[in-house]
Design a protein that fits this description.
heterotrimer; A alpha+beta; B mainly alpha; C mainly alpha; A: Rossmann fold; OB fold (Dihydrolipoamide Acetyltransferase, E2P); 6-stranded mixed sheet; 5-stranded mixed β-barrel; 9 helices; B: MetI-like fold; 2 domains; EC 3.6.3.31 (chain A); nucleotide-binding (chain A); hydrolase (chain A); Transp-assoc_OB_typ2 (chain A); Spermidine/putrescine import ATP-binding protein PotA (chain A)
Amino acid sequence: MSAGVGVDLENLWIRFGDFVAVRDANVNINGGDFFSFLGPSGCGKTTILRAVSGFLEPSEGKVLIGGKDMRGIGPNKRPTALIFQNLALFPLMKVWENITFSLEISGASAKERRKRADELLDMIALPDQGDKLPSELSGGQRQRVAIARALCAEPDVLLLDEPLSALDLKLRQHMRTELREIQKRVGITFIYITHDQGEALTMSDNIAVMRAGVIDQIADGKTIYNDPNTAFAASFVGENNVFRGKIKQIMGNEALISTNRSGELVARISTANQGKLAVGDDAMMFIRPEAFAIASDGASGDHFVTARVNHEEFEGNVFNIFTEGDGGKEIKVSLPNLGQSFDDHTGQNITLEYETRNAVLVPAGELAAE
Amino acid sequence: MRFWFRRVNWPRNKGPTMPGFLKEFFNRNGIGMGAAILGLVLFWTIGLIILPQLSMLDFSFRPNLPPPEIGGPKDVYTLENYKYLIYGPEGGSQSYNAVDLRVFFRTLLAAVCVTVFNLILCYPIAYYLGQSKGNHIRIFAIMLIIPYWINEILRAFALRIIFGETGVLNTLFVGLGIWDTPFDFIRNDIALYAGLGYAYILLMIFPMYNVIESLDKNQIEAARDLGAPWWRIHWRVVIPYAKPGISSGCTMVFMLSAGALAAPQILGGPSSLWFTQLIYQQFNDNNDWPQGAAYAIVLLVTCILFVLAMMRLFKVNMGDIGK
Amino acid sequence: MNNSFLRVSIWVYLVIFFLYLLGPLVIMSVTAFNSSAFPRMTPWECLTFQWFGELFQDQRILNGIKNSLIIGAGTVVLSVAMGLAGALMLTQIWPKLRATYYTIIIAPILIPGVVLGISTLVFWDRINRMLGLGADSFLSNGIFLTVIGQSTFIASYCMLVLVARLQRYDVALTEAALDLGATHAQAFRKILLPFMRPAIASAAVLAFLASFENYNTTTFTFGEYPTLTIELAQKVRYGITPAISALAFIIVALTVFFALLNEAKLKRQELVAAARKSATVEELAGKVKLPSLFAGNMAAVLLVVFAVATITVVGTATAYNPGQCIANVKEQKRLEAEQRIQELRKQREEQRKKREAEEAEQGGAQQSTPKPSNNSGFGNVFAPNTLGGDAEEESSDTETPPSNNGGFGGVFDPNSLQTDQ
């Protein structure tokens, strides 16, 4: 997959006065990858994108595109094309003029541009819409026009700044697939910015999880979901139940934690933290709601949590049980809907069971805001 | 609009340095465009606004010399031009320059009167236009703007036709037998006040209209619901809300009336001068530029101080003006 | 009852207000068509177009218009450019400087025009001297000084108009253009400028009007190039003629015309936008033309009425010859004057008679009451054409008591003979 042009960030710092927006970012993005920066708003991911596209000069460090240092090269000279959060379609130009703006700049004839526009309109499945104004299109159509406009510039790297955030849920899910397909078809590097972990997980080859200017983890989606590096990554990507405690004992890659409220439990130390944790450290254990199973009554040990059921809800694909743990901590359990019958447990005490590989231990740290 | 400002300002609210700002400015606009924008702005602010004012200030402290002597030994700073306004010519018969001082205070007082007159005249109209809906409002707006597009001189001329000795008003009143002999509107300055008020109606209405238009109708409804009489609704709800507009309008009308030249020249009586006319005379008839500059400075500074004092008195913020 | 009283008083107030606002303009316009040599509406003498002719033969007025156009063009270019630069700077200036900067660029609106004119004159005169240039250099040229002086404050107006639109501009559009390979200049020309075009047009019109009508600043800076406004002021100050009314009428008419045109255009755009909303692209081409220009568009209707009226007036003006009427009025004035003289004489005669009577009374009491009618009849012999006027003109003084001697008197008046034919 090294057909495209790669992007590297080396020791990248970006400061605005005293405020550090990006702190020592090191990222290697392979050519032809679909790479996502995932993080809450204000974490600095858009800043990184603007540094790559050339609207911002890094305070320190380098941005390399195709191995070439981009310092001093303006956005109009870089082989990147940016799709803006609000799309930034030129409101006074017709759709076809929008799409072929880069050709207009390079001095192509109107006829040539029209031809290219029709090709691209076919590609984004909007034939015969070229003479409309952007304001006459629907949200999803505008989205696709913005992509076509960026692709028309034949960039080596396409940068997307939360392009789906303005769409409704159905359309957003549809556009995910479509974007991924377009990326596969054109084969260039996509750098995608989002705060929606669903988008990042479904589309990306690799994901960088960002928090307050710092990149916590870079890995593929499965790794990030199953084997997070930090408490933030564990709590931001997907839903998770957190158990705080101190490490009581370390057994190879596993550890026994004495939790604050649920007694002593066994967990697997996450890959990045193996060998770095010591007995007595504050740590956090994460178990996904779907990793629990209901055990028979009275079972106990270091794989079992007892809890009292607060309320339950049926979500269609899953059945959610919200329980109150020993010390009053809430635990969410999701049982897949496989056609079984769900008993009403409200008010009862149940015992939950998990497997060690599904309980991930990381050093105590900042959690993602709810 | 919110979006624009947030986007533009966010990075720099963290307090970068001046060179940092310039660097970013050129990054954002490019070297060529940035230089063009910066050049035009500097030319305007410094070359056309600041330096000429400073130059006039400097000039007002110099004696009136023939061109060859400028920069020579006699070209020294002096307060003479300002003293002249207060004490009159040296060795004059009077201890104070009564004529010029009287003109000066009369001008200020008259400008205040014109402002108050305009405020009272325009407030109901601004309120009506701001709170009514419908096609006729647009027609009213056009009718308001049209006179403003007509030359200042011609507007004064129109009033002169009306207020003249054989003008429409006198013909009408004498014809109806209300007066026996034509009333001299011009000598009594009525024509002048009417003309000044006439000239700046729009400048009074628009700022007030803009504010009142944004006043939520429900507030008035609520006040009426609570049984407030109409004058109390205005006093307690509308006027406090419209204060920025009222102060903008009053400031503009006052400054422009005090600085008016055409209307006093055309509509003023032969015996009553406007302060700007004195300045005009110093420049064009007496050829005494430094003296004229000193008078201009006095006018400018007094007007600004007066407006600031009024704003403090009525508790208006500087930021509200010019909206 | 209270409510309707309020409504009536609002309307009365509106009527009075707009009378104050528009009345002077109407009266001034009307005086342009009265043949009286002093601009007045009453007494109405004759409908005439002569003042327009006089206006167009006035070299100073024509020259003033030329200068005004040159200066206006220069001011528009300079103020719109500075206003746009000022607005762009305002939206991205260093925040600590913003308040100061805003105060500086807004101040010229509030500084009296007289002060601006003087400071411009003084400053550029000094620059001129510093550079060692003569009194006829470019820097002391009236056109240059006036353009500079007017632009100082007109640019502030332009800035306000432009910044209002600029605030609705999304900088991401410029960034998108840059990102797609445009240079900064291209992004400005192809993206920002088209977006700003309506505001730039408004600012340009505003700048031109402000320049055209400016007096206070220009009066200090015009040098050898008096603008129309300066010429008008000179004329108005030293003797007014209806030719000025004629010019005023033209300006009022043009203003009304363009105001209506603009309103009609806006209304049309609204209608088109409304139509567009409910139409697909295929329908649009046909549908936009369908709602006639006049449907629901008051301004357009008025515009057409206005145009028809203009054509009628101009048509009448070319065909109409007020010479006859003017001659009559002149004649009548002469008569009135004579009549006045006559009355004076009559009074004198009466006094003489009285004295004689008194003297006679002293002599003989019988002759004490001479009939005054005899005397008046006698006097009227010298006011020969009251009747001639009567027969001819409604404007003639019908209250003149019919006199036996009137017909007789008419014989002496050659004019009345001519009019009889």
